[in-house]
Amino acid sequence: MAAAVVTPRIRLMTVCDGVRESKTEAGVYHVKGLRQRIVAHAFPFAPSRLWLFLVFSSRRPGEYPGYIRVLDDTTDKAIFFGPLAPAPTFGANDETLVNVARLKCSFPHPGRYTVQIWFFQEQGHDILKGELPFTLSQEGG
Questions:
Q1: Which residues contact 60 (CB under 8 A, 6 or more apart)?
Q2: 68: β partners
Q3: pLDDT truncated to tens, each residue of the chain (141 aa)?
C-alpha cells in the first residue's frame, strides 16, 4: 500500500476584489467584494482587481510549494498559472497560515471557470487540494 501524501489543508478559499491585513490587529484580514461571479461589459475581460484569499492549516512543519491554476471549464485549458508565493511554510506550532494571490488573467468568454490549488510532489503527480467554481456572464446577456 502506498503511503498517504501529506499536504496542507485548505480551510478557506475565496475570490474577492481586495484583501488587506488589519493595521491594528495581527491575523485579522479585511476582505472586500467576495465573489462567486462577475458580470462583464465585454469579452475578453481582464479584471483590474481580482484576488484569491486562502487559509491553510497543517499539523506537520515544513514548506509546501504549490501553484494556482484557473481553468476555462469549456475548453479545460488554463488561462492563469502562478506560484503560491510565498510557499506555505509551517513551524512546529503553526495552526493556520494566510496566503493572498493576485489573479491577473483574461477571461476569453462568458462561462464557468475553476480556480485550483495544487501542491508539488517530488515523486508522482502533483496533488490537487482545492477547487472553486467561478462564473462570468455578459451584461445584458
A1: 6, 90
A2: 82, 117
A3: 444 568 999 999 999 999 999 999 998 999 999 999 999 999 999 999 999 999 999 988 999 999 999 999 999 999 999 999 999 999 988 789 999 999 999 999 999 999 999 999 988 899 999 999 999 999 986
- Binning the chain into helix, strand and coil, the percentages to the nearest 5 are 0, 55, 45
The three cell numbers locating residue 84: 503560491
Q: Phi and psi dihedrals of 4, rounded to 5? A: -70, 140
Task: Collect all residues with Cβ–Cβ distance below 8 Å to 123 and sequence separation of at least 6.
Answer: none
- Please state whether the peptide bond connecting residue 8 to the residue before it is cis, i.e. omega within 30 degrees of 0: no
Q: DSSP state, 17?
A: S
The three cell numbers of residue 19 are 484583501
Q: Is the peptide bond before 44 cis (omega within 30 degrees of 0)?
A: yes
